[in-house]
Every structure is written in C-alpha cells, then in structure tokens.
Design a protein that fits this description.
With about 900 residues, chain A is mostly beta strands. Chain A contains ten helices and 57 strands. The two termini of chain A are about 50 Å apart. With about 375 residues, chain B is mainly β. In chain B, a hairpin with a 4-residue loop joins strand 13 and strand 14. The longest helix of chain B has 14 residues. Classes of the chains: A mainly beta (about 900), B mainly beta (about 375). Chains A and B meet through strand 50, strand 51, strand 55, strand 56 and strand 57 of A and strand 1, strand 17 and helix 1 of B.
C-alpha cells in the first residue's frame, strides 16, 4: 500500500513539472544566524508559496547561517546545502523535498515507460528508501524499530553506532538515554551502544561532548539497530561538556577516573609550545612527578613503572622525548586520554598503580584533512582522509625536533657539545568491513638520540603496533580481538677512548593477544569477559666492543622469556536506580620460562656471589618459576540524590615486570626486569571512597580518599650495580610500601570562566627491613619514597573573552620532594667528604609554578581553506627557580651545596597551528 | 628567541645538628714503607674550624692468628707505623678510643700493586695538559686500582729580592737566602679509581689523573707529578666508587640518589653507629715525571697570584725610615753615574714566594 501511494505521488509530480518554471524566478531576501532548520523553513514558506517536506530527525541538528538578498529560492537552497550531505528537489506543486544524500526525484526517468531497467543511479533499493523517508515525514519524526508483535517480551534491545556526521568517526562516551524510566548507556570506544528499553514509544536522547544534542522519537517493536550521526557543535562546546561530564562524574559508576579530551588539553598552557599529554596528566589531583622535565609520573604514591601506558592498546615503556621535556605522543592525533587511579575494571591489569589509556582519532572517512603546527622546538604534521569513502580511512602524523639548534643557544658549555634529536610517527587505519565487522590498525614509533657533555651517545626507541577486529555477534554481544606488539630498546655507545669504546644495548619485545567480550544482558546487567596473554622477550643487556682496538669483553646477559596470561569476568549491575555495583574477577598467571641458567643460593643467608651453591639450567620453553593469583575488582555507587553520590571501590592488581632504577628520575639506562624465582611480583591493594556533588549546573565538587598497600617493591642495596648484573637478585631488596591520601576537587565545567582547583594530601612510604643491616634501610622503619609530596594544590582557570580569544592560567604548588641530605662533613683521603642522613629524611624547597597562555583562533567561518590558530604562552610566569635537585660536591677539597633548576626563568613561546 | 636556562645556584641546607660526631679513619698501611693512620671526627656542615682530631687512641693491626702490631701516636691524631716485614696475608685494624669505645675493620688481604707502566701527558684541544697513567698486571685477571698524586711546581714571586733591610742596624744588606724561587706541592683531592673488570686483560690505558689549564702557574717553569698506585680489593673499589658518586658525581640529570656509604669498620659497642673509612693494606708503586715550559706552547698570560702586585720606589734619604710589611727588591741605578740612588720594594706577599704556599728549598727529587 505504501509503495503504491508513493508511486502515485511521483507520477503526479511528473505530470505538473513543466508548467512551473516561471515561478522560481521570484527573488527573496533574508538573514539567518544559527537558526534551526525548522525556523529557516517556516521563514521561507512565509516568503514564498513553497511547502517544505523533510525528516526532522535528519535536520534537527542542522543550523543555518546565511544572508542573502535578490536571490531565487534555488540559489538560496544551493548555497545553504553546498558542501553538505543534504539534497533538495523542487516539484511542480511548489513542494521542496529536503533529504540526506539522495535527492527525491520529482520526475520519472525518461525511460520509465519503455520497460528498460532503471539506470544504476536510481536503483530500486534507493527508491524504497526514499519512499520511507517520505512516510516518516508524515508520522512526525517517529522512527519505527522492529516488527510489531514479533516477540512477547516487554522490552527490546536497540543497538548501533553513534558517529560524527562530519568525519564518520565514532563518538565515544556519548550518552544514549530515555528519561522515563531513566535508562541510559554510554557508547564505547567504537561509538557502539546497546540499550534495552521498554517497548513502545520512547524519546531517545543522545548527548555528547562537542556534538549537537539529538532527540529521537522511536517506536520500539522488537530488537533493532539504529545508527545515528551527530553533527559537530561549532559553537562554544562547554554547554555540552557539562551535561556529559557531570553525568559521568556524579552518576557514573567509575571512580578515580580522569578524562582529558583534546580540547581541554589544548587550553592548558604549555612549556616550549608543545601540547603535552603527560604534563596535563600531572595537573590532575593525585598525580605527581619527582621534578619537572622528568620522565614518568607517580599516581597515588606508586612508582613510575607502576603505570600501564596503553597507546591504542599497545604498551609504551618510555613515554617521553628528550629526557623528559616532552611526552612521546603527538597531541594532534589524540582523541582522548583516560587515567584510571582506582577502580580499574577487570579487563585491565599488569601494573599496580594506574592505567593511562591513550587513543588516537580515526581518520576522516568523508574527506581529506590535515593539521600541523610549528613551535620553537618541534614541527608536526598530520594528514587524514578516506581510502574508501565511508568505509576505510587513514590518519598519519609525524613530529620532529630542531633541538640540536636549540641546545647550541644555551649559554653553557655543557650543552654546546650536546646533541639531541627525536621524532615520532603514527599511523591509524580504520576499515569498516560491514555493519558488523570493523578493523583497526595502528602503528607507532618514537625515537630519541642524545649526547650530553661527553662522548657517550644515548638512544632509545619505542615501537608499537596493534590490530583490532571488532565483531557484533548480536545486538547484545560484542566481541573484540586485539593483537599488539610493543618494543622498547636503548643503546649507549661510546667511542672516544678506543680501548674502552663500547656499545651497551637493551631490548624488550612484547607480543599481546586478547579477546574481550561485552554482553548486554539486560538494561541492568552489562557483563564483560575475556582472556589474553602476553609474551615477553627481554635481552636485558649486552655490552660489546666498539671498534677494532677496543678491549671491552663482550658481556651479554641471558635473555628472559615469560608468558603473562589472564582471564576475567566483570558485571556492571544496576541494583536500583540509586545503587549500581561492579564486581570483577581477574585471574592472572605468570610463567618465566627457559632457556636460562639460574643461580641457587645457600638458604638462610643473604644472597651474594659468595653464597651461590649451584647453577640450574632450564632448557627452552621449560618453566623456571610461576606466580599468579586472583585479582578482585569491586566498585559501588549510591546516588543519594540526583546530584549527590557516594562511591566505594576496592581493587587488587599484580605486576610481573618492574623497572630497575636507582636514579632520581627515569633514566635512559633504566632496565625492566621480569619476575623470576627471586624477584617476586608486585601486588597492590587499593581501597578508595569518594563523595561527588553537583553544586550547581556547572560546578561540581568531589572528594576521594584512598589507602593503598604495595608488596614486593624493589629497593636497592648501597652501591647496587643494576647494569649488566648477572645476578641482580644479590643487589636488590624487597620493600613494602603504603600510600594514602585525600583528593579534593572543585570544577567549573562551563561558562566564560571555567577550570578546576584541587588540593591533595597524600603520603607514600616504604619500608625495607631485611635480615641483615646491609639489607635494611633506615633501621627498618617506614621512610618517604622519592615522590612523597604531602601537599599539592593545582589550579587551572580558563577565561573566554569571545569565540576567538581565550586565556588560561594554571598554578601548581607542591611540597618539595624528599632527599637525603648530608648531615656532617669530614676529611678523608685529602678531600672534604659528606656523611648523609637517613634515606629521604629531608626535603628540597617547595615547588611552585604558574603558567599563562593566550589562544587566538582564526575567524570561525566553517567553510574556508584552512583554520589557523596562534598560541602564546609563558611557562613559569614568576621565573621561580624551582629546585630539581639539591646536591653537594667536593671542589678542590671544599664541600659546596648547589641547587639545580631546570627552568630557571619564565619561558615565553609562540606556536602556530593549522588545520585544513 | 628562547631562553631555556637550566641553572645552578648555591644552596645551603637547613642547619642540621648531628647528634654526636662519627669517627673518621683515614689512612693506608703500606707494606713497602712507613704508614700513617689519622683519626678525626665528623663536624657540622657550617662548622668552619678544622676537624677535631681523635687523640689518645690505641691502634693495632692483627692477623688471623692473633699476632698484633701496634701503631703509636706521633702527632695529635696521627698514628705511625715504621717500615717492617708483614708475614701474614690478611690483617685487620683495631681501634680503641680514649673513651674506651672499640672499632674494628674486617680482615683485608695484602694487595701488591704492579709497577706503573708510564705516566704520560698530551695537549688537549685548548692546550690544556692532560696527565694520564698506564698500568697492567699479568698475574691477576681483574684489576682494581686507586691512584693519588703529589704535584710540585716551581714558581717565582713578583720580583726578585736582592737586598734585605736589616732593622736593628737600619741598613740595607745583600740578601743571602732565596725568596724568589719556590716549590709548591699539592696533594690530589679527587678520588682516582678504575677497574678493568669489563676488559679481557688487566690493562689500564690513559686513565686521566689531572688536567692543567694552559694558563696555570704550574706550567710557567717546571712541573712535576708523583703518582702513587695502589692495587685494591673489589670491595674497596666499590667503597671508593660509592664515595665518589656521593660527593663528586652528584647533580647530573641521571645522578644516583646519595646515601650512606658503609666502609669496612664497625663499632663493637653499637652496630648502628656510623664509622667512616676503609681499611686497606698493600704495596705502593710510584712514578714521577716532569713537564717543562719548553715543551709547551706559550699562553697569552699566566694565572699567577702576583698579577696585582706593584713595585714602589724608595730613595736613599728615606731608607732609614723603611718599615711595614714590605720587602726590598733591586736597587735604583743612578742615572748620572755609578751606584744606586734608592731601592725598589713591594708588599711581602708579592716578594716572598714562601708566603704563597711553597718552600724555597729545592726538593731532593728535583731535576
């Protein structure tokens, strides 16, 4: 019946077309700024005798900005829809049909009555689609899903993808919800959602950061699919940010999660003109570092090696460039950054402190685009576009430095002989095989090379690749298969003295395969389960002669191999609308395998070369040692009221690979060590409690408190030799750690002024109490870890003057980090020497820094060749010489104290960014 | 365009009072000659006095069979052992202080140092003199070495003093002693250690001992360096390396965290009491070389302490009123005939080379 009606409509349109051409010559004028399409249409309908037909669901996110005079209707419509996916057509009845992508044909094809096959461009499928669109107009933007009476159940599951209309990229974390009763879900990392709703008519609301909100009326008969495209909101984005983040922080189940989207990231003032993910992470409450320009960060009192850094699912071992001045991630390509400080879901494991999940954008599926920037230190460029339109896209980006030039400008001879260079490259390819299968390929490489003061050249390199296949089995079951490779290597080379010339190198290779499934059991249960395994292969050190004359004896440590496997299951259960709980169990299992020779030590004595009693050889693939155990993850959220909630979480994590380092910061010579018969895996337990409250629509307040216990922390004996040590177990000590703290955060998420203020009180303590005095530090009492900074205050404020000018100010204060100070001096062997205090008994002066930036955007025309922006920033506005370290040195027999600052003055920078 | 200023400022830590001063044991037992062990105490960082010495202690070496060799105090805090035969292979050092606290080292084996192959030098890019040591040992696979040196150089004061003013007789006489040419000797202060553990042979080539700036006073006439080489144990090497790291190598970006360095002494009364020092025993081998200014390019200037010295004139009638911290140098020749009409003079510290830290007697070894 429907087909017949539509057919008649077309036929009718055809018969009257010829007589109406003169009407279209009539001219009109008008002016619209950000007008909803509806209003635009009514205005046109008043001025002309045309009637518009369109699907409001398709056009409700469309807003019109145009001014015209003495134009015909067709000229106006041509301009409005140019470069958009909307098409229009006119017919003889003065009806205007506005559709997405395919225009309504108001005339029959010329060969219509000859019985020939229709031309390809007007296939039958498309005809049907068109008629359906036409019908939807009549039922007033109601989307019908499923078939009436196909099941007896009272609920049905609706699933699909939410994508960006502009780029075709998935919209992550978009809320899909109905209000009565309140049922909501969020889209996952691929923009996929699955929501179980009562059958019948519902108003489905879709909300996301930076996107125009969409409300859809749906009539749900049975399970079905609905993909929705959201239009980018080119107006100031904050109104939308509020909705989504407020909901998440107060209403979401997850706690201890900090999200940084790229827009927030770009507002934070930066040192040396480089938008930096890790620097932004350091402004979050609960995150510390030992000093500026150091590699790595400390989350809630954990060490720097206790953070799992995932870049598109692949582990990154050294996240920095240029010994810590920059992070190794090109911010232009980043979609979002998530830091889990507690309540880590069961699907993740392997590090006990935190998870930093970084994902890159997908390339634009619709058109080619590029972006780039120039700062005093680096240049960067990214290009993206479709390979197959709407199906396959790519994104490629690169960044490199001219820091060699920069180092030469530093007025210190130490730096003049130095060289430093780095680059990083990214590639991401996304392919949609069909509506149920998607493939994601990502590749990453970062490389650094530098020489400081002397003749020794350090170089290191991260490599990562991942391939992810995502398959939708049913509306309720979704599976992801991920394989990834991560590699890290460094080389230290020296060649000045031919007798001592050497090459020292170190390599980690990690292969990872895992399968993750999400099962949307009902609107109250979402179950995640999966399994995975990691294969490690480490070449923990090889020293080789460099050159013919070198007498260096090749010294190669045995390779280490291991498997780390895990299975997990977790359930997100909404007990009542007020109470949600998450229960997860992960079982991880670690096997260190041969080939390898292992020393056996005399039981009951400290491990030492002199107490080795035997050497056991393990053949290839043979198990040397294993460890493992369950890891429990629990979270609960209770909504006290609509704007107040309380959350509680407990989690245990196990870590089987640790970094060996006895320097203050991560050094390029630090090595990673797998658990073995002597190095026990790290175990971390954390319990945390949080209170979240929305004071007003845009201001929220939260308090999170935590207590953490860490077992088998590695500590070192005095004079421990970590490099090329064939028996590292003789030089390390087992410490226990505890950390606790409270984090207060006030955040204003929207308005002309926005930002956050946080205060953190936290402690991080270690205890090393071995059997003998050599194995004991500070008499076996608790002492501060290197990154124990009890008080920290962070402030970020943004002020938007108008759409083109905005400024940001941030301020960071923290207690100085602990150090071991000399407490007395003495003369020995002709020179003044120092006697040091207990480990970490004193502190360096407090740290304070403020930064300022001004961002100037180009004009906001949506359509233009290239968008450009300038960013002027001043890092360390007050020029305070914050101590990086304090040290004492004997010079000509006299002991002198010095304070080393990395940034000793205010550093202004200008950066130019462009996008096309 | 950009100011990236990493900077280093002087820093004084908060005043830290150490409870009680720890005992410091400094010295080495030389089996090929005489030895001295010095005992002193640690002092607070802000303390400007010389360290307090530990006097009245009893020190004795002890071998594994219990045979004791006593040292005796020659000066306050200095304990002396004359050259003698050492029959055993291992010894330890015992100390009993005046207040009856006892300290003891672990047993250490007597290490025999191989001969120094050569001490050489070369000019660096900026014409500095780099002095290096070379050695090898065939008997032992792994070598651990420590070096110390005494450097001696000839220098002259601002002007030569021919005359001396005799205050009792208020007259000028010819000077009989030499206060123009002096020899100054400095001891090494940096820790100089090296191991060959990562080499296939026990060879040390070109270990840098000392670098001298081309403008140094040391290179103005003649310079000599006496290098002493000690073979040490691996534990001793680790101790000195730790000490070096915690006092000389700190403050670099990847510097190690400083900490207490534990030597091989222990307090028998309280095992937590810090005791500083490392007892070692062995032979010493030495090598002396000379460097003359004739072998070196001439620098634009010498960085000598006499650069601001001025010479004044004193005419004959005023000679009998001569007084103050001044010394006469040459006579002022009579422009109109023979004889002198007065004297030149200068501040004593400019004229008497002994006031700049040297001695005016030529050392025995001087060539």
């Amino acid at each position: 019946m429907r087909t017949v009606n539509s057919f008649l409509l077309v036929l009718l349109a055809f018969s009257i077309t010829l007589s109406t051409l003169a009407q279209e010559k009539k001219t009109i004028r008008g002016e619209f700024t950000d007008q909803p399409f509806n209003d635009f249409v009514s205005a046109l309908e008043q001025k002309t005798d045309y009637k518009f037909f369109f699907d409001p669901a398709q056009t409700d996110s469309l807003s019109i900005t145009i001014s015209f005079s003495n134009k015909t209707l067709t000229e106006v419509l041509d301009e409005v829809f140019r470069n958009s996916d909307y098409r229009y057509s006119l017919d003889a009845n003065h009806y205007v049909y506005v559709t997405l992508r395919e225009p309504i044909l108001t005339e029959l094809p010329s060969n219509f009555f000859s019985g020939d096959k229709l031309p390809d461009s007007v296939s039958q499928r498309k005809e049907n689609a068109r008629f359906e669109e036409a019908e939807k107009v009549k039922v007033e933007k109601l989307t019908i899903i499923g078939n009436r009476g196909s099941t007896n159940k009272s609920t049905a599951t609706l699933a699909g993808y939410i994508r960006s209309m502009k780029t075709g990229e998935p919209v992550i974390g978009a809320s899909v919800l109905i209000e009565k009763p309140l049922i909501g879900v969020a889209t996952d990392a691929n923009g996929y959602y699955s929501i179980t709703l009562p059958k019948g008519t519902q108003q489905l609301r879709i909300r996301s950061i930076g996107m125009k909100s969409i409300d859809r009326n749906i009539l749900l008969h049975s399970d079905g699919k609905m993909n929705v495209e959201m239009d980018e909101d080119v107006r100031p984005l904050k109104e939308v940010i509020v909705e989504s983040e407020k909901d998440e922080r107060v209403l979401g189940l997850q706690m201890g999660l900090e999200k940084i989207d790229i827009k927030t990231l770009k507002q934070i003032p930066v040192a040396l003109g480089e938008v930096d993910i890790l620097k932004a992470v350091l402004i979050l409450p609960g995150v510390q570092s030992v000093g500026e320009a150091t590699v790595g960060f400390n989350v809630r009192g954990g060490a720097t090696d206790q953070n799992l850094i995932l870049f598109n699912d692949a582990t990154i071992y050294n996240p920095s460039h240029l010994f810590g001045f920059f992070s190794a991630f090109n911010a232009d390509l980043i979609k979002n950054v998530e830091l889990y400080k507690s309540g880590i879901p069961a699907e993740h494991g392997g590090r006990i402190s935190s998870l930093l999940d970084i994902s890159t954008r997908e390339g634009n599926k619709r058109k080619w685009a590029g972006s780039g920037g120039i700062s005093p230190i680096t240049g960067r460029f990214a290009l993206e576009g479709p390979i197959i339109k709407d199906k396959t896209s790519f994104l490629i980006g690169g960044r490199s430095t001219y820091s060699d030039w920069l180092l030469k400008q530093i007025p210190s001879s130490n730096f003049q002989n130095s060289k430093a260079s780095f680059y990083d490259l990214n590639l991401a390819i996304t392919h949609e095989i069909n509506s149920k299968n998607n493939l994601y390929l990502s590749g990453y490489i970062s490389s650094d090379r530098f020489r400081l003061q002397n003749d020794t050249t350090y170089s290191y390199r991260n490599k990562a690749a991942s391939l992810k296949w995502r398959h939708i089995f049913t509306n309720k079951l979704l599976g992801t298969l991920t394989t990834s490779y991560s590699g890290y290597e460094y080389t230290i080379a020296s060649s000045n003295n031919p007798v001592n010339a050497f090459n020292l190198s170190y390599t980690i290779d990690q292969l990872n395969a895992k399968a993750d499934f999400n099962y949307f059991l009902s609107s109250r249960h979402t179950i995640g389960f999966g399994a995975g395994t990691i294969r490690y292969k480490l070449a923990p050190g090889s020293l080789k002669p460099n050159g013919q004359e070198s007498l260096v004896v090749p010294n190669v440590l045995q390779n280490e191999q291991a498997y780390e496997s895990s299975v997990y299951v977790g359930d997100n259960f909404e007990v009542t609308p007020q109470l949600s709980i998450y229960g997860g169990l992960r079982y991880s299992f670690f096997q260190n395998i041969g080939p390898r020779d292992v020393f056996v030590y005399q039981p009951g004595t400290p491990k030492d070369v002199s107490t080795i009693i035997d050497t056991v050889s393990f053949s290839s693939g043979k198990k040397i040692s294993n460890s493992g155990g369950p890891e429990i993850r629990l979270s609960a959220r209770y909504s006290v009221s609509g704007n107040t909630s309380v959350k509680l979480s407990y989690n245990r994590l196990r870590q089987y690979i640790q970094m060996l380092s006895n320097t203050t910061a991560i050094a390029p010579t630090d090595i990673w060590k797998l658990s073995d018969p002597y190095i026990k895996p790290l175990i971390g337990d954390q319990i945390s409690l949080g209170y979240y409250h929305s004071l007003t629509k845009s201001i929220e307040f939260s308090v999170e408190a935590y207590y953490k216990i860490m077992h088998n922390f590695l500590d070192y004996k005095g004079g421990a030799e970590l490099i090329l040590n064939h028996h590292i177990e003789t030089d390390v000590l087992n410490a226990d750690g505890k950390a606790y703290g409270i984090e207060l955060l006030v955040k204003k998420t929207s308005g002309k002024i926005n930002g956050w203020l946080s205060y953190t009180y936290s402690r991080s303590l270690l205890k090393t109490a071995g059997a003998t005095s050599i194995e004991t530090i500070n008499r076996g009492e608790y002492y501060s870890s290197n990154y124990d900074k009890p008080h920290a205050v962070n402030f970020i404020g943004n002020y938007k003057f108008n759409r083109r000018f905005s400024m940001s100010l941030n301020m960071v204060y923290s207690t100085g980090r602990p150090i071991t100070l000399p407490i007395a001096k003495y003369n020995l062997d002709g020179s003044g020497r120092l006697l040091y205090s207990d480990r970490n008994q004193y502190r360096i002066p407090d740290y304070f820094r403020s930064d300022f930036s001004l961002n100037i955007e180009g004009n906001h025309k949506i359509k233009k060749l290239a968008h450009s922006s300038w960013s002027v920033s001043v890092y360390n506005l007050t020029g305070r010489r914050n101590a990086y370290s304090v040290y004492f040195t004997a010079e000509n027999g006299v002991v002198k104290g010095y304070k080393l600052s990395i940034f000793g003055s205010a550093i202004p920078t200008i950066t130019y960014n462009f996008k096309f | 365009m950009i100011l990236l200023v990493g900077c280093i400022d002087p820093y004084s830590p908060p005043v830290i009072e150490q409870g009680s001063a720890a005992l410091v044991i400094d010295g080495f037992i030389n089996v090929s000659g005489e030895s001295t062990i010095q005992l002193s105490r640690t002092q607070n960082l802000i303390d400007a006095e010389v360290p307090q010495v530990e006097t009245g202690a009893t020190l004795w070496l002890e071998d594994e069979t219990g045979i004791k060799i006593y040292l005796f105090e020659t000066e306050h805090g200095k304990y002396f052992l004359p050259a003698q035969n050492f029959a055993s292979h291992t010894y330890r050092l015992n100390i009993q202080t005046q207040n009856l606290r006892e300290y003891r080292s672990s047993f250490e084996s007597v290490k025999i140092s191989p001969a120094i192959d050569s001490v050489t030098w070369n000019l660096t890019d900026n014409n500095s003199v780099q002095i290096k040591v070379n050695t090898h040992d065939v008997g032992n696979e792994e070598g651990f070495y420590r070096w110390t040196f005494d450097e001696t150089w000839l220098y002259t004061s601002a002007d030569e003093s021919i005359y001396v003013y005799d205050y009792p007789s208020r007259s000028v006489q010819l000077r009989t002693d030499n206060i123009y040419q002096c020899y100054r000797t400095d001891k090494s202060s940096d820790l100089l250690i090296e191991s060959t553990i990562r080499l296939s042979k026990n060879i040390v080539r070109d270990y840098p001992l000392k670098r001298i700036s081309p403008n140094s006073e040391r290179l103005r006439y003649k310079y000599s360096i006496l290098t002493r080489q000690y073979a040490i144990t691996q534990d001793a090497f680790n101790y000195w390396q730790q000490l070096k790291k915690t006092t000389e190598d700190l403050g670099t970006l990847f510097g190690p965290i400083p900490g207490q360095v534990t030597g091989n002494f222990q307090s028998l009364n309280d095992s937590n009491e810090p005791v500083i020092g490392y007892f070692a025993i062995g032979s010493v081998t030495t090598k002396r070389i000379f460097i003359s200014f004739l072998e070196l390019p001439t620098p634009t200037f010498y960085d000598i302490p006499y650069r601001d010295c001025e010479i004044y004139s004193l005419f004959n009638p005023d000679v009998q009123n001569f007084s103050g911290p001044y010394l006469l140098t040459h006579g002022i020749p009579n422009p109109n005939g023979p004889g002198i009409i007065g004297y030149y003079y200068g501040i004593a510290s400019c004229i008497d080379c002994r006031l700049s830290g040297g001695v005016n007697t030529k050392p025995d070894f001087w060539e």
